[in-house]
Specification:
Blueprint lengths: L1 E5 L2 E6 L6 E5 L10 H9 L3 E5 L7 H10 L5 E6 L1 H12 L4 E7 L25 E5 L5 H7 L7 E5 L6 H4 L1 H12 L3
Parallel strand pairs: 3-4, 3-5, 5-6, 6-7, 7-8
Antiparallel strand pairs: 1-2, 2-4
Length: about 180
């Protein structure tokens, strides 16, 4: 594993050299190590991973800076909870940099969450293959509405009783990422 400092941000880069890179964004209160099991599975599938060590202070411009510094033209983007919210925003507002989107436990930012709060009412739809993984059936109505904000293939994976998808459903998450990185 290579640790790389990009501005004030540390990222972990690992896996085989590949034309397919996956950028993983953790939840706000979690370290990037939450993706360790997911990354191991992705490396076994021939994918290179870049993991933000923390979500603190990361924004859309920070994601673009990471990709630019690593000379990555496009990426498969993954996020969990708050990291997923940022991933949705970047994918929706940045044309041509994201090949696919896999998000966990965070619906499209223009869709009200379980508390009725909207993260970003002005967030446009994403126009790329997207998978939304939810760990509770309580999110299903919001997940279904999120499908109206995806102008491409959209898939919902419901894993009832999973309160932390990257940590407790690593195999399922890695499978969804691999499926999205394939051209078929």
């Amino acid at each position: 594993m290579e640790l790389r400092q990009i501005g004030a941000r540390t990222v972990r880069i690992d896996g085989p050299e590949s034309r397919h890179s996956v950028l993983l964004l953790p939840a706000a209160a979690e370290p990037g190590t939450v993706y360790d099991d997911v990354c191991t599975r992705l490396h076994n599938s021939g994918l290179r991973t870049i993991v933000a060590e923390t979500l603190d202070g990361l924004d859309e411009a920070g994601i673009a800076a990471i990709l630019d510094e690593l000379k990555i033209g496009w990426v498969n983007l993954v996020g969990s909870r708050e990291g997923a919210g940022l991933a949705w925003l970047f994918a929706a507002r940045t044309f041509g940099r994201v090949a696919s989107l896999v998000v966990a436990d965070c619906c499209h930012p223009a869709v009200p969450d379980l508390n009725g709060e909207v993260l970003a009412a002005d967030c446009p739809p994403v126009e790329l293959p997207t998978t939304l993984i939810i760990g509770s059936s309580l999110l299903r109505p919001q997940a279904d509405v999120s499908g109206r904000k995806v102008y491409a293939d959209f898939r919902i994976v419901q894993l009832d009783g999973v309160d932390n998808v990257p940590l407790k459903a690593a195999a399922e998450m890695a499978t969804e990422i691999v499926l999205r990185t394939s051209s078929w």
